[in-house]
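Summary for the steering committee. One of the milestones for this cycle was to obtain a three-dimensional model of the protein with deoxyuridine-5'-triphosphate bound, which we needed before selecting residues for the alanine scan. The sequence and ligand used are listed below.
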Amino acid sequence: MKRGFEIVSKYKDQKLTVPYRTTVNAAGYDFESAVDMTIPSIWKLNFLKILWAIKHGKEASPEKIDHAKKILKPFLIPTGIKAYMQPDEVLIIANRSSNPLKRGLAVPNGIGVIDADYYNNSGNEGEIFVQIINFGITDIKISKGERIAQGIFMPYLLADQDDHSKQKTRHGGFGSSGR
Ligand SMILES: O=c1ccn([C@H]2C[C@H](O)[C@@H](COP(=O)(O)OP(=O)(O)OP(=O)(O)O)O2)c(=O)[nH]1
Ligand SMILES: [Mg+2]
């Protein structure tokens, strides 16, 4: 077992498909969305943010601010997939090139870096999410089973100055190691 994909336990009975390549020499394994979801247009989201700020201004309570942050956050599409690989390998998540052209969907982090130690981490079992922003003017519906991004396994190199004392055990993703 060198590298590959598994379905995370939360989705085990939901008939998900593990990522697959669609042509003989494709570098990327296509990932499908694990859920139906709508990605609202960023224009609409920003408009809502402005309305919200005008309404609540500085007087908003911390609870209200938390609520607003929740509904206005960038969208993470769950894939229900985790990836195992060798310790000196990484899985790069890249957008499909058709997404910006046809649907106005971009990956705001440019590429996603899925670390080998993300697999089976204690926080979220290593579920891979695709961060997506809809820069178009209409909301976009994503259906369960629709291909949304692709993952490419790569080897990575260490620097001469690599400092073990800075390295902790991973317990999640998306800022789990702090700011
Ligand atoms: O598009 C992405 C990018 C990252 N991740 C997961 C896997 C990765 O191993 C982990 C951490 O990613 P990264 O190091 O890029 O983010 P961070 O903001 O530095 O978070 P952390 O503090 O958890 O390292 O989040 C995803 O599921 N999808
Ligand atoms: Mg990190």
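Key point for the committee: The chain is about 15% helix and 30% strand.
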